[in-house]
Amino acid sequence: MSHEDRNPAANPEPVEDVQGDARWMSQHNRFVQECKDAEPDVLFVGDSMVQLMQQQEVWKELFSPLHVLNFGIAGDTTCNVLWRLQNGELHNIKPKVVVVWVGTTNYQHTAEQVSGGVMEIVQLLINQIPHTKIILLGLLPRGERQNPLREKNAKVNDLLRASASRLSSVQLLDLSSGFTHSDGTISSRDMFDYLHLTSAGYRKVARPLHDLLLQILEETPDEKQTTLP
């Protein structure tokens, strides 16, 4: 693929430090350090939807007992997640499951480009930790009422569903339909700013995700067993 043809949403790049405090890189470096100290069964990676989940009570209830790491950074695009994973955030760890939730902040990219960027992340995971199962969380609707970004996110999910169906180690969990009412509106009880989730909104995501994680973890043999000669 030529430089002109390359998907811009699949181009690994760090976040530019426009504010001058190096917060993004500091978070990345902390994640790299966590890889040296932890042996997670489950890794979450993505944007603010992943990052903020860790602050919820439901995280402590359902996910903390599963030996998890949360590598979410607010505002990250597929490009930023790709760069982070290529630069140390997979070193020394072999999670049984990786949960990927990213794409809604790829404002400058088309639905096809966003889905391609997500699948580039998937391919990187398959290449570096091939025995790991991958859960793609579908993008949620956004905005109180129907709007072009919501339509774009829905198209991304359709494209991801088609791509995931061709890979035995990948599953798409699309929970978007549970957030729109019959008139197409989203409630502030689920999304306080019509994008980020409230505690109630996170519970709608966490319970089916937890069920799927338990199912995969029960079916996945320990790494010690899979690496026997």
Automatic annotation (TrEMBL):
Gene Ontology molecular-function annotations: 1-alkyl-2-acetylglycerophosphocholine esterase activity; platelet-activating factor acetyltransferase activity
Catalytic activity: a 1-O-alkyl-2-acetyl-sn-glycero-3-phosphocholine + H2O = a 1-O-alkyl-sn-glycero-3-phosphocholine + acetate + H(+); 1-O-hexadecyl-2-acetyl-sn-glycero-3-phosphocholine + H2O = 1-O-hexadecyl-sn-glycero-3-phosphocholine + acetate + H(+); 1-O-hexadecyl-2-acetyl-sn-glycero-3-phosphate + H2O = 1-O-hexadecyl-sn-glycero-3-phosphate + acetate + H(+); 1-O-hexadecyl-2-acetyl-sn-glycero-3-phosphoethanolamine + H2O = 1-O-hexadecyl-sn-glycero-3-phosphoethanolamine + acetate + H(+)
Keywords: Cytoplasm, Hydrolase, Lipid degradation, Lipid metabolism
UniProt-listed Pfam families: Lipase_GDSL_2
Places the protein is found: Cytoplasm
Source domain of life: Eukaryota
UniProt-listed Enzyme Commission number(s): 3.1.1.47
Gene Ontology process terms (BP): lipid catabolic process
Domain SGNH hydrolase-type esterase as annotated: residue spans: 45-203
GO cellular component term, pick one: cytoplasm
SUPFAM superfamilies, per the entry: SGNH hydrolase
The family this protein is said to belong to: Belongs to the 'GDSL' lipolytic enzyme family. Platelet-activating factor acetylhydrolase IB beta/gamma subunits subfamily.
Designated name of the protein: Platelet-activating factor acetylhydrolase IB subunit alpha2
Organism: Astyanax mexicanus
